[in-house]
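Moderator note: this is an archived Q&A kept for reference. The question asked for a predicted structure of one protein chain; the sequence and the answer are reproduced below.
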Amino acid sequence: MNLGLGEDQQFFLDTTRKFLNAEMPIATVRGLVQNPDGFERDWWRRGAELGWTSMLVSEADGGGSVSGKGPLDLVIVAEEFGRTVAPGPFLPVNLVAFALGADGNSEQKAGVLSKLLSGESTAAWCFHEPNSNWRADGISTVAETAGSGYRLSGVKTIVEAGGQADHLLVAARTADGFTQFVIPADRDGVTTTPLNSLDLVRRFAHVRFDDVELAATDVVGSVDDAGETIDRMLQLAVLIQCAEMNGAAAEVFRFTTQYAFDRYSFGRPLASYQALKHRFADMKLWLEAGFATTDGAAHAVADDDDAAKLTSVAKAYVSEHVTELIQDCVQMHGGIGVTWEHDIHLYLRRATVDRGLFGGPELHRELISERLVA
């Protein structure tokens, strides 16, 4: 977290934290495991009223952020989602809202976007494909010209909230580039299959498009010209994930250090043993460095300054060290740390899923090296 939060940002953080603590404590999260959606719609609408879905959309289109720099404020909420392992389609809704705010036509903004901002509906971004590598060049879903519209064919997978979404934003190849389309999730030819998820309250789906008919009004932005927006959405997705992982790691580190002071072994607190002190010191270093790299990435995205490289730096570092940090904390707890009853596995599940989505550390190190030699 940026230590230089403004007064309005601090108030926003406090409000979000109080709301999540009151409305979504861990016990409530556990109770949503069997919920088909993984979250309650009314709860999500109340979160949207706090501004969770509006930060990447301009005030002219019904959005707005606390500081005027949406990515910086988005990180605040993402960290709190990680701290409480909160449910809900926070990442996909914000990505789709950004795309519609940036490129959508007046009808899309007045319809789909306004409902996303109010929390009345949800959306999913259909980007990743089987056997692809979370890069735009892996897109093989095709939208071919058909009369005055298009015909969409292909498969998307690991689509977060794909089965819960009211609308789908689909990234596809067209004749001379990439184009995105926004369509109702129940359009003819769309088949959604739920996937199992390691994260107990986040839902993913496999979405198939079999000759889905698209109108020209379904196009978001210009035909063949979505590449820049897709790149920006990938940067935002990675930023949200890093902030969420940091929030999860910070909370795990907090309650693990408290446990180490409360738990006695051979008449001494666990925290008094030098070997454990060294491990805690390493974890604290990883945690603070993770916050710093993510903060740097957030400012880069907000200012459009080398954002592609710095978001990859953050993802490469945070995703590797957060999962290791939480695993270390599991060991600090001993046997109880590997039980269903202890909450630590909920955080490990969240961090592990975030590590892989939109590319793990290996992919992002590769992306960094490519940009260094370009």
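Archived answer notes: The chain has a mean pLDDT of 95.
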